[in-house]
Amino acid sequence: MFGILLVVGAASGPVEAASPASAATVVEASVLGANTVQAQLLAYLARGDIAGAIAMYPLQTGRAAPAWLTDLQVAYSVANQVAGRCQQVARFIHTAYGKLGQTPQYIAFKTDETKPYMVFELANAKHASVSRTGYHVAVRVGDMIHDAYTGPLGMKLSDYLSRLHAQKGITWAVVSNP
Questions:
Q1: Cα within 13 Å of Cα(126), Cβ side
Q2: What angle do CA 172, 146, 92 make, to 5 degrees?
Q3: Residue 123 CA from chain centroid, whole number
Q4: Which of 6, 65, 75, 136 meets the CB 3.0–4.6 Å disulfide criterion with 57?
Q5: What whole-number distance in Å separates Cα of residue 178 and Cα of residue 159?
Q6: What pTM value is reported for the model?
Q7: Cα R_g (the chain), whole angstroms
Q8: What is the full DSSP assignment across 26-56?
């Protein structure tokens, strides 16, 4: 079990979790046992290293990385940081984490305004358009929110809400479909 983390760390530097939640995922993956591909994938994802997970998969299984894993990499691309792409991005993220034994949830963000625009404040303090319809969806895995704007490490809900803006505020709820 510990060897998994050492091998992973040797390939791409020391294992550093980006947040307490991702640290818990790394620990959970190693404690669960298992010297499994699933545990290794979770360790890579906890570090935000999707490319490493995709490269590791064929080495461990002898098969090409599955579409849900490559779709996850596409979901986080900067090209998806535009209004109107959130539902497909959420489906990719939800599917991937579901395949990895997690319990992802769709989270819908809404604003009820005559000009229903939502923007997301990026790390560089610029604002990206998230929605022109007053509806945006992301995925919650544990206590982290994931979408194209958060990148593969995700973001705590409180931090996400502090960056998601609409003129008259935003409400959110767990929904069954994006």
A1: 5
A2: 105
A3: 16
A4: 65
A5: 21
A6: 0.79
A7: 17
A8: HHHHHHTT---HHHHHHHHHHTT-HHHHHHH
List residues bridging with 155 in a β-sheet. Answer: 145
Distance (Å, whole) CA 27 – CA 20? 10
Q: Which helix (H) or strand (E) holds 128?
A: strand 127-131
Please list the rounded mean pLDDT of every run of 10 residues in the chain (178 residues): 32 38 41 67 93 94 95 94 94 96 96 86 89 95 95 95 92 95
Residue 31 tokens read as 């404690």
> What does the pLDDT read at residue 12?
35
> What single DSSP character describes residue 80?
G
Supply the DSSP symbol for 2: H
Which residues does 3 contact at the CB level (< 8 Å), separation at least 6?
35
Q: Report whether 41 contacts 52 (CB < 8 A).
A: no
Helical residues (DSSP H) of 64-172, grouped into ranges: 67-75, 86-99, 157-163
Residues in the chain: 178
